[in-house]
């Protein structure tokens, strides 16, 4: 069953979460440990983040530098398949633009189709500056460009324009949205314009960047509805677990932290106290969202699976 159908068929606010692939050298058991911790809350689907390879320069014995591509984490394709077959829970791998060529994306789609994983989350991904020897036309610049490739794949059109037998089960997908505006958008009007394009061209649902002020989410949803965007807009939820996230998260994700929350975090003497404050804020935030009838809550669990477990026990 597609994610959109899982959300719509849920009799109460659906629960889902996102996991981070383990670092190179670690087994998939680390992923299973997180899932086992949260499985009791009946997750409708589990997202798997994707990370591009990185270039480092290794100093050779003669003093020259050699560029080496390294990958710190396994890809989302294999992990999504393992999760889906072990738990019978719909797995949603992230497919991103940055750091992956159009050909690599096509190979991923071929593999996912073969493995029976048909739900995706299409994202631009973290901004990555291409090396001078990399051709920019090999990469998608925007998530809407990636969306076109997936749509063409569903029609049986390869990246080189050749035809093939289309998937018996086409891919369905969600895409990202930003209640507080994408950092590169010149204004909210522009952001909404491209959001409408995403939905018009096939996005089944939207999932938000993390936010801590529900009023901003409600205002964003209202504006989207006025603009004719009718698909579910899923709140992305992140519990704060470290004291320094009071300044780090707004800097990285451009998410405002309400003063009432910030005030309590400033009182914390250590990370353990900040984690407790983060859990309590998130519980109240989620209860308010559920009272307002959101179709689903999607939790970002990186470094926060224990907190998510505590929160879920209070609201599900």
TrEMBL record:
<dbReference type="GO" id="GO:0009086">
    <property type="term" value="P:methionine biosynthetic process"/>
</dbReference>
<dbReference type="InterPro" id="IPR029041">
    <property type="entry name" value="FAD-linked_oxidoreductase-like"/>
</dbReference>
<comment type="pathway">
    <text>Amino-acid biosynthesis; L-methionine biosynthesis via de novo pathway.</text>
</comment>
<keyword id="KW-0560">Oxidoreductase</keyword>
<dbReference type="GO" id="GO:0035999">
    <property type="term" value="P:tetrahydrofolate interconversion"/>
</dbReference>
<keyword id="KW-0285">Flavoprotein</keyword>
<dbReference type="GO" id="GO:0106312">
    <property type="term" value="F:methylenetetrahydrofolate reductase (NADH) activity"/>
</dbReference>
<keyword id="KW-0520">NAD</keyword>
<keyword id="KW-0274">FAD</keyword>
<keyword id="KW-0486">Methionine biosynthesis</keyword>
<keyword id="KW-0028">Amino-acid biosynthesis</keyword>
<dbReference type="InterPro" id="IPR003171">
    <property type="entry name" value="Mehydrof_redctse-like"/>
</dbReference>
<comment type="pathway">
    <text>One-carbon metabolism; tetrahydrofolate interconversion.</text>
</comment>
<dbReference type="GO" id="GO:0005829">
    <property type="term" value="C:cytosol"/>
</dbReference>
<dbReference type="InterPro" id="IPR004620">
    <property type="entry name" value="MTHF_reductase_bac"/>
</dbReference>
<comment type="similarity">
    <text>Belongs to the methylenetetrahydrofolate reductase family.</text>
</comment>
<dbReference type="GO" id="GO:0071949">
    <property type="term" value="F:FAD binding"/>
</dbReference>
<dbReference type="Pfam" id="PF02219">
    <property type="entry name" value="MTHFR"/>
</dbReference>
<protein>
    <recommendedName>
        <fullName>Methylenetetrahydrofolate reductase</fullName>
        <ecNumber>1.5.1.54</ecNumber>
    </recommendedName>
</protein>
């Amino acid at each position: 069953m597609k994610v959109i159908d899982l959300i719509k068929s849920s009799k109460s606010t659906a629960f889902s979460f996102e996991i981070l692939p383990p670092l190179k050298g670690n087994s998939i058991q680390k992923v299973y440990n997180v899932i086992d911790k949260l499985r009791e809350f009946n997750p409708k689907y589990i997202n798997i983040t994707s990370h591009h390879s990185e270039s480092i320069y290794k100093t050779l014995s003669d003093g020259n530098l050699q560029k080496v591509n390294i990958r710190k984490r396994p890809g989302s394709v294999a992990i999504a398949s393992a999760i889906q077959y072990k738990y019978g829970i719909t797995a949603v791998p992230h497919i991103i633009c940055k750091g992956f060529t159009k050909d690599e994306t096509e190979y991923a789609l071929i593999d996912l189709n073969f493995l029976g994983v048909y739900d995706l989350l299409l994202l631009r991904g973290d901004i990555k500056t291409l090396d001078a020897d990399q051709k920019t036309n090999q990469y998608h610049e925007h998530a809407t460009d990636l969306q076109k490739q997936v749509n063409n794949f569903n029609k049986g059109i390869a990246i080189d324009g050749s035809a093939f037998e289309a998937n018996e089960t086409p891919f369905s997908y969600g895409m990202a949205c930003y209640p507080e505006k994408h950092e590169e958008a010149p204004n909210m009007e522009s952001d909404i314009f491209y959001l409408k394009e995403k939905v018009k061209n096939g996005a089944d649902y939207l999932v938000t960047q993390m936010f801590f002020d529900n009023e901003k989410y409600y205002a964003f949803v209202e504006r989207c509805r006025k603009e004719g965007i009718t698909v579910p807009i899923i709140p992305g939820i992140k519990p704060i677990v470290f004291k320094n996230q009071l300044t780090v998260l707004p800097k990285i994700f451009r998410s405002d932290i309400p003063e009432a929350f910030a005030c309590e975090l400033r009182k914390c003497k250590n990370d353990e106290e900040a984690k407790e404050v983060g859990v309590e804020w998130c519980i109240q935030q989620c209860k308010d969202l559920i009272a307002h009838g959101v179709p689903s809550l999607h939790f970002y669990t990186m470094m926060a699976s224990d907190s998510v477990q505590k929160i879920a026990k209070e609201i599900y």
